[in-house]
């Protein structure tokens, strides 16, 4: 999979194309991408996904905080796994938003040579969203491309969207988010030094430096799988402000206790896959009560993940 940062970096003779934000690459996105990949294979042309960053809602409506489900690189990797040959992460700004639909389509034809365009049912491009499904159906014969409209994917009787994934995360419902994504929600980052209280409590934690614009699950404690290099390890992950010690902490902290693992992780990359929520964030009377609860969280995590590790101690 090739990942480029601007349409103008490409000069393809032909392609099958889809366009969107694809934040999270949820089940709806996956259905569209699989159809794109099938069409591209049949036509013997590259499958191209044009994605935007920042998200149009951030630029046009000032959505704060941004709350991305996936970073641009994570999104490109996921799209590649689904069969996309070329991912374009196009900068979205007000100048691009002001381009008329036909002018943007002509730019895409010059650089991508698209012969097929796959879109979702509510898709639109160009200034004031003028390039909607009806518009594209009208111009497709004249501009020489075949249009394929993919119906929305429904989960629990509702049309799936990235907004629904964010809502599930805000509620701490990582199991529901996983249903929408077709995989566990993940957070990736570098392990950095924290306050060191975990070592003091004999329950060391790895503090994760996470992209500040990432969507996070609600404050609480979660059963996770931690990926460190080639190792996948069970972990109890806390997201919150450490109310027992730092009640005035404003920025949420992501810290994971890896079960039965004692190596130094500072400076390494870690990826957390959230499987289930164990409890909400709590304030305890002191370290003893906190440690007792963490030991319960560890046992529940073992049960949730089905971990049966030799030499396990709580």
Describe the secondary structure blueprint for this structure.
Layout lengths: L1 E3 L10 E6 L6 H17 L3 E7 L2 H6 L10 H10 L4 E6 L2 H4 L3 H12 L1 E7 L3 E2 L5 E2 H11 L2 E5 L3 E2 L2 E2 L2 H9 L3 H8 L3 E8 L4 H4 L5 E5 L9 E9 L2 E10 L12 E6 L10 E12 L6 H19 L9
Parallel strand pairs: 1-4, 2-3, 2-5, 3-4, 5-8
Antiparallel strand pairs: 6-7, 9-10, 11-12, 11-16, 12-15, 13-14, 13-16, 14-15
Helix pairs in contact: 7-8
Main pleated-sheet profile? 6 strands, parallel
- The overall strand count is 16
How do the SSEs run, as a string of H and E?
EEHEHHEHHEEEHEEEHHEHEEEEEH
Distance between the termini: 44 Å
Per DSSP, the total helix count is 10
Strand order of the largest sheet: 1-4-3-2-5-8
Structural class of the helix and strand makeup?
Answer: alpha/beta
Broad shape: elongated
Fraction of residues in β-strands: 25-35%
Low-confidence stretches: 307-314
> How would you name the oligomeric state of the polypeptide chains in this document?
single chain
Radius of gyration: 22 Å
* Residues in helices, as a percent range: 25-40%
Mean pLDDT across every amino acid position: 90
């Amino acid at each position: 999979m090739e990942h480029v940062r601007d349409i103008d970096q490409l000069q393809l003779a032909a392609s099958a194309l889809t366009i969107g934000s694809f934040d999270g690459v949820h089940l709806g996105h996956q259905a569209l991408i699989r159809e794109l990949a099938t069409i591209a294979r049949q036509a013997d042309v590259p499958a191209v996904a044009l994605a935007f960053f920042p998200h149009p809602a951030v630029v046009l409506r000032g959505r704060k905080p941004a709350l991305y489900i996936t970073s641009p690189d994570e999104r490109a990797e996921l799209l590649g796994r689904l069969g996309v040959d070329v991912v374009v992460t196009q900068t979205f700004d007000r100048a691009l938003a002001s381009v008329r639909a036909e002018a943007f389509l002509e730019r895409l034809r010059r650089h991508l040579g698209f012969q097929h365009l796959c879109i979702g049912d509510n898709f639109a491009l160009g200034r004031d969203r003028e390039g909607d499904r009806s518009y594209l159906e009208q111009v497709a014969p004249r501009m020489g491309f075949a249009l394929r409209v993919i119906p929305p994917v429904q989960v629990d009787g509702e049309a799936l969207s990235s907004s629904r994934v964010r809502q599930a995360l805000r509620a701490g419902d990582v199991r529901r988010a996983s249903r929408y994504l077709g995989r566990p929600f993940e957070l990736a980052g570098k392990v950095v030094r924290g306050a060191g209280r975990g070592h003091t409590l004999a329950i060391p934690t790895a503090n994760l430096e996470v992209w500040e614009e990432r969507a996070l699950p609600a404050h609480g404690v979660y059963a996770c799988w931690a990926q460190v290099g080639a190792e996948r390890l069970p972990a109890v992950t806390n997201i919150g402000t450490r109310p027992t010690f730092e009640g005035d902490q404003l920025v949420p902290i992501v810290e994971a206790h890896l079960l039965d693992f004692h190596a130094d992780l500072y400076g390494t990359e870690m990826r957390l896959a959230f499987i289930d929520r164990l409890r909400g964030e709590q304030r305890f009377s002191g370290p003893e009560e906190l440690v007792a609860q963490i030991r319960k969280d560890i046992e529940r995590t073992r049960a949730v993940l089905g971990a049966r590790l030799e030499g396990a101690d709580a």
